[in-house]
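sry for the spam today, last one i promise. struct tokens for design, 398 residues
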């Protein structure tokens, strides 16, 4: 079975074509700058041919048509005909309380995704566009929605409720949902495999540290808490998001600076985090380079990032009454050995110890704790596309 995995954003579409026979990636790529000037498609196949097609891409329909053309292309394509694609798996950011699992897309499901879209106005509408375009271009292929929030639907009430008047939960669904669920689930499963133990018997803390970042407490394979909330703004210090702050700061700054709702929202989502504190960049590599040169704000930004992660790990150990493994994943978690070193060394008092040699590795699945560490620590590159393809296959195969 061959599955096309799509992640449709506002101006980009990421795709992978996966052969479920051996779970290999036949081709992958990204359509960039949809509806903006200088749009293009970057495509790579399993023969390592890479092409960049620079062409006007005014909308998602044109973008997905280009993807299909690239997959069928005589030179850099990997398919003889569209019939070889068995199904399409779509990443959908917010599934609200309706979707605790991946779901076969029907008209009814599209309606339900629309209904929760006001919880993720920056993401869901674009995910839906991808779904609608595929329904038109590939009318007879089953399509499956895989939700970022679904894995966290197992959180207990005490973890997902906000201590606001209860009616807001009832009226608007104001609660914590969590995100990056596909990634947390994947790395937790891999950690259990690497430990040679059933996931059901393990307490795992998964740290997805990318530009967006979140941590999850996974007890017996189920998410019992996670750091992102109603939206991806809560929790850790991120590339441009502030994470946890005192909510009273919002009306305070709005009043002092005369800001609108949109402006303050934009500041918390796009102008804060590593970028806002360092004043340099949202990219941890740039911030680290500046800190090395003695930039005090960059140093502070990194210290805040590491400290917040450490605090959440401590909190989730308490939440689960223990931990067997800690996993680092995503751009920073997979590559930034300094970040991992600081965080794991912060936990030395719990007899959690870093194997410094192993920690030098980048982007590979590896255990980075010492053999006498009480808790195993792993780096596990995430693979959300594969998880989407697996769920899609399972649903389509019935
Ligand atoms: P997202 O998917 O949320 O956009 P990523 O998971 O790609 O983000 O992570 C982006 C972050 O990972 C950036 O802060 C970047 O500095 C860091 N990162 C990515 N690749 C590397 C690398 N090779 N070495 C060090 N840091 C990296």
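last one done:
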């Amino acid at each position: 079975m061959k599955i096309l995995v799509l992640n449709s954003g506002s101006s980009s579409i990421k795709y992978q074509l996966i052969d479920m026979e051996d779970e290999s990636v036949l081709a992958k790529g990204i359509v960039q700058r949809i509806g903006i000037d200088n749009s293009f498609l970057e495509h790579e196949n399993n023969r390592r041919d890479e092409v960049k097609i620079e062409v006007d891409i005014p909308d998602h329909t044109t973008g997905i048509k280009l993807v299909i053309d690239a997959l069928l292309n005589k030179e850099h394509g990997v398919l003889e005909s569209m019939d070889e694609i068995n199904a399409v798996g779509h990443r959908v950011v917010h599934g609200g309380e309706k979707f605790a699992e991946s779901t076969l897309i029907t008209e009814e499901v599209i309606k339900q995704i629309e209904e929760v879209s006001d919880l993720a106005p920056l993401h869901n509408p674009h995910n839906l566009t991808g779904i609608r375009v595929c329904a038109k271009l590939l009318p007879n292929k089953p399509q499956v929605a895989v939700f970022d929030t679904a894995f966290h639907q197992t959180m207990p009430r005490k973890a997902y409720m906000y201590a606001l008047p209860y009616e807001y939960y009832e009226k608007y669904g104001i609660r914590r949902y969590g995100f990056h669920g596909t990634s947390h689930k994947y790395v937790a499963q891999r950690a259990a495999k690497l430990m040679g133990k059933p996931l059901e018997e393990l307490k795992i803390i998964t740290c997805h540290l990318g530009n967006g970042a979140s941590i999850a407490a996974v007890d017996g394979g189920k998410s019992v808490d996670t750091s992102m909330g109603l939206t991806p703004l809560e929790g850790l210090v991120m590339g441009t998001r502030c994470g946890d702050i005192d909510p009273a700061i919002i009306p305070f700054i709005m009043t002092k600076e005369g800001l609108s709702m949109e402006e303050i929202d934009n500041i918390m989502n796009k102008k804060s985090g590593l970028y806002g504190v360092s004043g340099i960049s949202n990219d941890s590599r740039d911030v680290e380079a500046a800190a090395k040169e003695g930039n005090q704000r960059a140093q502070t930004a990194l210290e805040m990032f590491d400290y917040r992660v450490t605090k959440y790990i401590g909190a989730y150990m308490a939440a689960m009454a223990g931990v067997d493994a800690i996993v680092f994943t995503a751009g920073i978690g997979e590559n930034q050995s300094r970040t991992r070193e600081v965080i794991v060394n912060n936990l030395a008092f719990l007899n959690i110890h870093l194997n410094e040699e192993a920690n030098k590795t980048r982007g590979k699945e590896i255990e980075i704790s010492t053999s006498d560490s009480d808790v195993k620590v792993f780096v596990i590159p995430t693979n959300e596309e594969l998880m989407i393809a697996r769920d899609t296959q399972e649903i389509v195969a019935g």
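The first strand starts at residue 2 and ends at 8. ok im logging off now
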